[in-house]
Design a protein that fits this description.
Layout: H1 14-20, H2 25-31, E1 43-44, E2 51-60, H3 66-72, E3 79-85, E4 92-94, H4 96-104, E5 109-116, H5 119-125, E6 129-134, E7 146-147, E8 151-153, E9 156-158, E10 163-167, E11 170-174, H6 179-201, H7 206-209, H8 213-219
Parallel strand pairs: 2-3, 3-5, 4-5, 5-6
Antiparallel strand pairs: 1-6, 2-7, 2-10, 8-9, 10-11
Helix pairs in contact: 2-6
């Protein structure tokens, strides 16, 4: 039965959460075994935003944003609100007024597997949203949902307190209990990529930097010269 609000959920260490903001979504996705990425339908409403925060999750009925209002009270500085309808909906659940309330509480952004609106105002406020669509269609406030329960958002399971990282490439979720481990893997990947970048800049080919030639040959890759005409 809907109507549950879980209060004071556990969050990852703040220093760990904040460190993810220095890392790209693609890096985090690769470093945790190519897992956790939300569907490509979830895109930023404006370019250049890059956030990391702890998930406050909201399960909402289609075209009903009542529980988003309830969730505002459960948000803390450094959180990201994650909203998932229980059935597909393109309604505009979220706009400038709710963003104002969240921004006042230090919330870093919204991820929603549905629509948002007032996008010009949201960009002016620099309140980032990653949504399935933009829609002027309003919502009602009639039916209960849940706050801070596990939700399925854009193809991923999200638990309250998980780390959410979002940028121009999309959104990735890191399980709270693995946050420190994944952060370490991300940093190791960044160091490896820095070495590769330096070698590329020096003119080396990725085929040689990453030792691809032998496997390409084993797969049957052949080179032939066209010769003179």
């Amino acid at each position: 039965m809907a109507g549950l609000v879980v209060r004071n959920v556990a969050r990852a260490d703040r220093a760990v959460v904040d460190a993810f903001a220095e890392l790209g979504v693609a890096t985090v996705h690769e470093a945790q075994g190519r897992t956790g990425a939300l569907a490509s339908s979830i895109t930023p409403i404006y370019r250049g935003a890059h956030v990391a925060g702890s998930a406050v999750t909201v399960s909402v009925p289609p075209a009903d944003n009542w529980m988003v209002h309830v969730a505002v009270e459960e948000c803390r500085d450094g959180d990201v609100l994650v909203v998932a309808p229980t059935a597909p909906s393109d309604a505009g659940y979220f706009g400038e007024l709710l963003a104002t309330a969240l921004q006042a509480r230090g919330v870093r952004g919204l991820v929603i597997d549905a629509g948002c609106r007032d996008v010009a105002e949201l960009e002016r406020m620099r309140f980032p949203v990653w949504s399935k669509c933009v829609s002027p269609v309003g919502t009602v406030k009639e039916t209960l949902g849940d706050v801070n329960v596990r939700v399925a958002c854009a193809g991923q399971s999200v638990e309250p307190g998980d780390v959410v990282v979002a940028d121009d490439d999309g959104v990735v979720v890191v399980p709270r209990k693995r946050a420190a481990e994944v952060l370490a893997a991300c940093r190791a990947r960044e160091e490896k990529e820095a070495r590769s970048r330096a070698r590329y800049a020096a003119g080396e080919l990725s085929l040689d930097v990453h030792g691809m030639r032998a496997e390409l040959e084993r797969k049957g890759l052949r080179y032939v010269d066209e010769g003179p005409r």
